[in-house]
Design goal:
Elements: E1 2-6, H1 11-22, E2 26-31, H2 38-41, E3 50-54, H3 63-69, E4 72-75, H4 82-87, H5 89-110, E5 115-121, H6 150-169, E6 172-178, E7 181-182, H7 193-202, E8 207-210, E9 216-218, E10 220-221, H8 222-233, E11 242-245, E12 250-252, H9 253-264, E13 270-273, H10 275-279, H11 294-300, H12 308-326
Parallel strand pairs: 1-2, 1-4, 2-3, 4-5, 5-6, 6-11, 7-10, 8-13
Antiparallel strand pairs: 9-12
Amino acid sequence: MHVLITGGAGFIGSHLAEHHLARGDQVYVVDNLSTGSLTNLKPFRGNPAFRFAEADILHWNGLSEAVAWADRIYHMAAVVGVKKVLEDPVAVMATNMTGTERILRALHHGGWNPQVVIASTSEVYGFNPQSSFAETDYIVLPSAGRLRWAYAVTKLADEFLAFSYARKYGLNIVVVRLFNTIGPNQVGHYGMVVPSFVKQAVHNEPLTVYGEGNQTRSFCDVRDTVVALDRLAGCPEAWGEVVNVGNDQEIPIRDLAELIIQRAQSASPLHYLSYKDAYGEEFEDVTHRRPVLNKLRALTGFTPEWTLTDTLDDLIERERTQNLRVA
């Protein structure tokens, strides 16, 4: 199978590359390295089945040729992370919307119909009051704090773009709403909480909790996420659908911090920081984010293999090993 991954040097994209190379597929990654890293691709660079193009999908001249080559496309390229979104909302709008439309146009004009996964986000559910979110639930986004929600709005627009092209041209597209994904090679530079907490705990530094830490999240190991995406891409019943992907076990952020301190046997205290101090402006965070996974299970039979504690133990050990190498 020929697999094209946009944003393939990023966290989830590089794990998708690893997953498909291990199966014997040919993988073509394109990434502008704005948030992705060549370090994530280093294990594959000598593999003859792997190709990499450092390019921005907004301007990449090789896009049409790559789309025509691919049997499957994972469109993961996006500007992610609250800090990055607040720093450069213009880039968010351009990359997340124009980039997706360019992919879809190339698909239509290429006369080829590969399997396509378009990555969306659980952020689109916004302030929906339900205790857990199903794909048919209402989207509830506030009118205040507009830039904070730029990412969610662009991803929702991507969904409409994808389904418009799929309906009009019969494209084999599934949209996945990814809930909080964690695992090896994720960095905390743009507000990702787990890698930040793990690094702080291993170094016995204060764990920085935003707000009061009562907000809850559901974390899924990236090694489970790529399996779910693989199954959905190859499932004809999923084409034309939007599907939640994640783990439905929920934990408050404060409890997550305490769990990481316990697993790392760390002396770190908790340090509470207001959103205004963290991001330079005040905004209201969503109180919970837990997926309903009935649709994913019905389509693919997917069950996560990694528990939260298993993932945390793995990440803590990796952080310690990396520190020993640096020392």
